[in-house]
């Protein structure tokens, strides 16, 4: 009981005012010129190369219409070159829209939708010593606050209650998705972006592919994903299909797909650190270009040097302290949707208080939709809990927690941990 009260009171005390709505914004000519000029200067500082001017022009030429979230004032004074100072909250939305994606993913006129089937928050701590990536199930029921209509900024969209989170993008655009997640978590999110199918493929190619471990064969006719057991290097469309597959992994649910995505993302984090990408301006440039060309970004991310500075913030972060968390949910009455459990308060507390998290060892072992340990991987090194010396902690005062221990119903993994996708064949579907 005391622990529940501690988390509830922390949540109430830490919840900041919610950022204003998002709206679509058209670039004026002077703003575009300013972007190009700033990019030329910044890329020159980073690369020190004669090709910097062309690189900056090349990046600026890929700019798409952006979204204003309305909370950009929190970024005043943030430097444009070097690692981002302070903490970062960035929301990535994966849209299932087929518009502009060709016919490889279905007829864009008949099968397209505007659903945020992937909603993922990345939090980097203020001191860059830890990070959390929180995935929200697409069928999670959530309350949506008032949002400005992106089609008519002079009008307001009414609140919604108990709707699936993946409908918020079509309801009020990216700004409304950001505002909804801010309200749920009690934090401010100044960075956001929407990525479509080909954007994911492009980003995976920009990093040179990602190695994934498959424990049992994956067979999914819906996405065309067929992988034998073993390790595979995936990039382009193959990487996209691996991230999209649901029927071919775990119990065939969206919760299993999230676990599968965490296999990919943890390997991506290891790849970015091991091959020096996060310290290489040329490689960071290629990633920035892929993002600008394939994503719709918030105004706060349109300066490519800011994107690079966010990436650099993770350059030296311990992989054991980069956590991929599935937001804890349980099936609602009647099935077909999930609702956050009480354990979600632990995730909120960690984010609000800038704390690293630790997983309960039993969490994945008891999960029906989780992944499996790689039998060939060495176990990750244990990270000892930080202790406050007795002489510095008064006996009558309990020391502030330094790690948020997550309950057994919160699944996920660290970037240091190699796990394998629990494949599912056609016979099991």
From TrEMBL:
Q: Which InterPro entries match?
A: LytR/CpsA/Psr_CW_biosynth, LytR_CpsA_psr
Please tell me whether the keyword Transmembrane helix is annotated for this protein: yes
Q: Name one Pfam family in it.
A: LytR_cpsA_psr
Give the span(s) annotated as Disordered.
1-24, 372-429
Q: Where are the transmembrane segments?
A: 33-57
What are the entry keywords? Membrane, Transmembrane, Transmembrane helix
Q: Where is the composition biased (Acidic residues)?
A: 384-394
Ranges for domain Cell envelope-related transcriptional attenuator = 116-273
Q: In terms of domain of life, where is this protein from?
A: Bacteria
Task: List the Gene3D superfamilies hit by this protein, alphabetically.
Answer: LCP protein
Q: Where is the composition biased (Low complexity)?
A: 395-405
**Protein family (similarity comment):** Belongs to the LytR/CpsA/Psr (LCP) family.
Q: Which NCBIfam families match?
A: lytR_cpsA_psr
Protein's name in the database? LytR family transcriptional attenuator
Whose protein is this, by species?
Agromyces ramosus
């Amino acid at each position: 009981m005391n622990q529940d009260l501690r988390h509830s009171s922390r949540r109430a005390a830490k919840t900041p005012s919610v950022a204003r709505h998002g709206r679509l914004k058209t670039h004026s000519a002077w703003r575009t010129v300013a972007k190009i000029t700033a990019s030329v200067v910044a890329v020159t500082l980073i690369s020190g190369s004669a090709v910097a001017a062309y690189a900056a022009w090349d990046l600026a030429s890929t700019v798409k219409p952006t979204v204003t979230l309305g909370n950009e004032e929190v970024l005043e004074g943030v430097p444009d070159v070097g690692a981002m100072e302070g903490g970062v909250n960035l929301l990535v939305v994966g849209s299932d829209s087929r518009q502009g994606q060709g016919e490889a993913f279905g007829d864009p006129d008949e099968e397209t939708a505007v659903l945020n089937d992937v909603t993922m928050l990345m939090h980097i701590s203020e001191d860059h010593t830890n990070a959390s990536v929180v995935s929200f199930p697409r069928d999670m029921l959530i309350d949506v606050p008032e949002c400005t209509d992106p089609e008519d900024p002079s009008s307001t969209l009414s609140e919604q209650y108990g709707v699936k989170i993946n409908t918020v993008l079509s309801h009020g655009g990216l700004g409304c998705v950001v505002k909804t997640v801010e309200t749920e978590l009690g934090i401010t999110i100044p960075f956001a972006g929407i990525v479509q199918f080909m954007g994911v493929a492009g980003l995976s190619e920009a990093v040179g592919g990602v190695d994934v471990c498959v424990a049992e064969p994956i067979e999914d006719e819906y996405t065309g994903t067929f992988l034998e057991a073993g390790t595979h290097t995936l990039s382009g469309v193959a990487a996209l299909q691996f991230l999209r597959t649901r029927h071919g992994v775990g119990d065939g649910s969206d919760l299993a797909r999230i676990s599968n995505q965490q296999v990919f993302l943890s390997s991506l984090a290891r790849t970015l650190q091991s091959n020096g990408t996060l310290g290489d301006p040329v490689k960071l440039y290629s990633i920035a270009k892929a993002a600008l060309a394939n994503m719709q970004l918030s105004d706060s991310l349109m300066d490519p040097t800011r994107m690079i500075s966010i990436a650099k913030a993770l350059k030296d972060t311990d992989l054991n302290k980069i956590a991929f968390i599935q937001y804890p949910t349980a099936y609602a009455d009647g099935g077909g949707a999930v609702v956050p459990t009480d354990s979600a308060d632990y995730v909120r507390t960690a984010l609000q208080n800038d704390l690293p998290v630790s997983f309960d060892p039993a969490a994945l072992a008891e999960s029906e939709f989780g992944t499996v340990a790689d039998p060939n991987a060495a176990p990750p090194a244990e990270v000892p809990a930080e202790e406050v010396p007795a002489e510095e902690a008064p006996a009558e005062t309990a020391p502030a927690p330094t790690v948020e221990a997550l309950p057994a119903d919160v699944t996920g993994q660290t970037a240091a941990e190699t796990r394998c996708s629990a494949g599912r064949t056609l016979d099991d579907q």
